[in-house]
Design goal:
This protein is α/β, with parallel strands linked by helices. It has 7 helices and 15 strands. Strands 1, 2, 3, 4, 5, 9 and 15 form a 7-stranded mixed beta sheet that branches. The protein has a 5-stranded mixed beta sheet with strand order 12-11-10-13-14, sandwiched between helices. A 3-stranded antiparallel beta sheet has the order 6-8-7, sandwiched between helices. The two termini are 33 Å apart.
Length: 280
């Protein structure tokens, strides 16, 4: 089981009541970070992932959660993030809680092994309706009771809209998960596209993004901001560089800092995890 850990020497496991825990869980990995709320400084990140070519089972994830000493502690606040390609955005003025499932099945098939959840988004003013596998939902509810679940899109959009408001033109963002990626485009602070695409290779990512660019008449002078699991697709950057001039990796922002131990870390890989603190 591949494992990553970075921690500051000031970390005190017995002071968890002063810490905030953000955890992201999926079949392709479990990650969590700890924010020291007294100093507003991130002081730990741990990442577990399955062996190459495999996924975590619920039993695997249960084993990680129950055996990790930091996940047994009580925290000042806890955020749980679950990536999902199955979501629907509904403008807040049009949202009716009694029609949540109806909104969801307009774009996605309803199955009996998932639960339907909702998150409120501040920008755009909308509700995001998404599905989560029942076994994973049950595990997280049991391990972290009374904790709200965020779809990964909530901290991602929080990050994107912060930077978009400082631009006069388009903001283009590609966030990559193991089996799907999100393409989000704002133009003059208006959301133009927020889609998830299933992919099998990096060429699929390039194809879908360039197809959208062609339909929206997006020119070579634009900049694409990347986050997520980009390291496993090293050929993506030179491939995209042939079509656009600007390539940037998006690092987290907020009213927090990072311990020096994060200096060499690829923070864009865990953008949503660190950005959860901005969703208060």
């Amino acid at each position: 089981m591949p494992f990553l850990e970075l921690f500051d020497e000031t970390l005190d496991i017995n002071s968890s009541e002063n810490y905030m825990l953000s955890l992201e869980a999926a079949a392709d990995g479990l990650s969590f970070c700890i924010l020291d709320t007294l100093r507003n400084k991130y002081i730990l990140i741990r990442h577990y992932e399955p062996d190459e070519g495999k996924n975590f089972t619920i039993e695997d994830l249960t084993g990680v959660i129950t055996s990790d000493e930091y996940l047994k502690k009580k925290y000042r606040k806890i955020y749980i993030i679950t990536p999902s390609p199955k979501f629907t955005l509904v403008p807040a003025p049009l949202y009716d809680p009694e029609k949540t499932e109806e909104y969801f099945i307009f774009n996605h098939l309803r199955d009996e092994i998932s639960v339907i959840l909702t998150n409120k988004l501040p920008v755009p003013d909308a509700f995001v309706i998404f599905s989560l596998a029942k076994p994973l939902a049950g595990l997280l509810n049991h391990a972290f009771p009374d904790t709200q679940h965020f779809i990964h899109l909530k901290p991602l959009l929080r990050h994107i809209t912060y930077w978009d408001k400082n631009l006069s033109g388009r903001y283009i963002h590609v966030h990559i998960e193991k089996d799907f990626f999100n393409l989000v485009i704002f133009d003059k602070n208006i959301l133009k596209i927020c889609n998830a695409f299933i992919y099998r290779s990096s060429q699929d990512i390039l194809y879908h993004v360039m197809n959208v660019f062609k339909k929206m008449d997006i020119k070579q002078e634009e900049t694409i901001h990347f986050s997520g699991n980009i390291e496993k697709h090293d050929d993506l950057i030179p491939d995209f560089s042939a079509y656009v001039r600007g390539i940037k990796f998006s690092g987290p922002f907020g009213n927090f800092t990072f311990s020096y131990v994060f200096n060499e870390a690829a923070l864009h890989r865990f953008l949503n995890l660190f950005s959860a603190a901005n969703c208060e």
